[in-house]
Amino acid sequence: MSRPDLPADLADVERRLRAGRGPAPSSAHRARVLAAVGDALAARRLPWFRRPVVWQTAAAAAVVVLWANVAVSTLGRPFAFPSDAGNGQALRAGAVAIRTVAPQLSEEEARRQALLLRAGAAGAALPRSAAAPGEGSGFTHWKEVHSWGSP
Amino acid sequence: MREGSPDDLLDGLVAGEHGAFATLYDRCGPAMVRVAATLAGSREEAEDAVQDVFVGLVRAGDRLRTVRNLRAYLFASVRRAAIRRCRGRRPATLAAKDLPDPASGGNSTDGETAVRLERALARLPTAQREVVALHVDGGLTLAECAEVLGVSANTAASRYRYALEKLRDALKE
């Protein structure tokens, strides 16, 4: 069937095109399509909470929430993964500074205080009625302390 | 040859009657595969695209009630599915095994001409190849082609004419 408004040469091309129309579907295609339609219809008839797409969406949402939870809990806690070498140097400098103002502290205790400060603690608690300077018991005999405050 | 209009199947499709889908396939499935094959350049991808369209019809459910011309809607969906499947590459020429057997029809072109036509078709600009696919392979009128492509009827007709001229020149080479 050629269009009447086409010149003869174009009508001939159209006729050849129609004679050589594209491939027919394979013999199994009809069965495959109708099987897919049957599956989709069965899924459509399920109650909403039993549809696969609902569970896929819920699983994806759970993964996102879990990821966000882990990300937020590690955020701002650089010591959770003490991998950077720069921290060691900064800690040592902090410990030296702390021992300058509190020489009674042991090196290990000064390093621990520096670590707490870097971890974002509001400040290491110090006893108000600390033992006399030089005795070095202010932090170890904590049971004797009656009140606490921040420097 | 124009295959039957599927609009009377709309209620059955919306209601999810399996028989309505089977009838729809019998009326339009082969033409949909031919259109998709011309656009995607492969029978396998064309068949997958048509399957996508049928599954999409099931999922559309009640939204199908808003469709005015189911035939145009179907072929617009086939076009989108075929484009999605050959995104990022130019469609290949159909393999010789996918071309019709020249001995099977009374007025069929010979095998060599069919291959040359197929190659020339694959070289056409996409806009022109789409009109040829919808009009020749899908059996849509040029007005329906225009509706599917979202252009005016005059534009569809002129694209079709340009396409035929290029195919004619390719056959002369």
Characterization of this structure:
The complex is a heterodimer of chains A (151) and B (173). With 151 residues, chain A is mainly α. Chain A has a domain at 83-121. Chain A has five helices and two strands, in the order H-H-H-H-H-E-E. In chain A, helix 4 (86-101) packs across helix 5 (107-118). The mean pLDDT of chain A is 75. By secondary structure, chain B is an all-alpha fold. Chain B has one domain: Arc Repressor Mutant, subunit A (Orthogonal Bundle), CATH 1.10.10. Chain B has eight helices and no strands. Chain B has helices spanning 10-15, 18-40, 43-60, 70-85, 111-123, 126-137, 142-149, 153-172. The longest helix of chain B has 23 residues, at 18-40. Chain B is globular, with a radius of gyration of 16 Å.
Descriptive terms for the model:
heterodimer; A: mainly alpha; 5 helices; 3% strand; B: 173 residues; mainly alpha; Arc Repressor Mutant, subunit A; 8 helices; 67% helix; globular
Number of domains of chain B: 1
Largest sheet of chain B: none
- For the secondary structure, the number of strands of chain B is 0
- The run of helices and strands of chain B is HHHHHHHH
Cα gyration radius of chain A (Å): 39 Å
- Cα(first) to Cα(last) distance of chain B is 30 Å
What's the architecture of chain B in CATH terms?
Answer: Orthogonal Bundle
Helix content of chain A: 40-55%
- Global shape of chain B: globular
What is the residue-mean pLDDT of chain B, rounded to a whole number? 83
Rounded to an integer in angstroms, the radius of gyration calculated over CA atoms of chain B is: 16 Å
Proportion of helical residues of chain B: 55-70%
Question: What is the percentage of strand-forming residues of chain A?
Answer: under 5%
Number of strands of chain A: 2
Question: What name is given to the CATH topology of chain B?
Answer: Arc Repressor Mutant, subunit A
Overall form of chain A: elongated
User: What is the helix/strand order of chain A?
Assistant: HHHHHEE
